Amino acid sequence: MPAHSAADAPSPADWAHEAEQRVLDAALRLAANLPWSAVLVLRASEIAGLSPADADLLLPGGPADLAALLSRRHDRLALGELAGVDGAALKIRERIRLGVQTRLDVAMADEAAVRRASLFLARPDQLALAASLAWETADGLWRWAGDTATDENHYSKRTILAALLTSTLGVRLAAGRERATDYLAARIDNVMAFETWKTRLPNAAEVLTQAAGWLGRLRYGRRGEEQV
Description:
Blueprint: H1 12-30, H2 38-47, H3 52-58, H4 63-82, H5 92-108, H6 111-121, H7 127-144, H8 152-175, H9 177-188, H10 197-200, H11 204-220
Helix pairs in contact: 1-2, 4-5, 4-6, 4-7, 7-8, 8-9, 8-11
């Protein structure tokens, strides 16, 4: 057999990516029975064949890094599905509605893990990460939708869509797909065009407060039915 040269060995970046995905795959299988925590990362890393030292090197942030891997995988899968859609044939509001629904449908294929990760990201010490990941998702969806804004609208659109994604996910987890679809449609139909969201929709803080309420239901159960 021919000898393998150093060029045949995987690069550190390739190794890291493959190892991260193995850990994430294992975590998805464990998430139904384990909270999103350092214990989950340790167990998933063991299943993926990593030593504790390699796991610490690969995921120094532990469950926070794992949550980021999950969100970014769902972003890639959703944008992959949307790549086959002729966005030019849709109005901008229809593109964003489709983008949000596709992203949520992809996420809910890993529902148990998303529930665990969402509760983890709702912790006060994880809010910055939650906001950053929601921004990444919103940015990807706006770019798919053809947004080319470079002024302040670039930021306002992503901020508002990130808040809408977060709150709609909360509704989806707490009340199901139909209720989430109605919630999303009601928020989008409040305005004539996405460019006026910042003056016509509830502000980002208000929408994030709604999201916190829905996520609270996941942790503590329903206390009366809330109208959306």
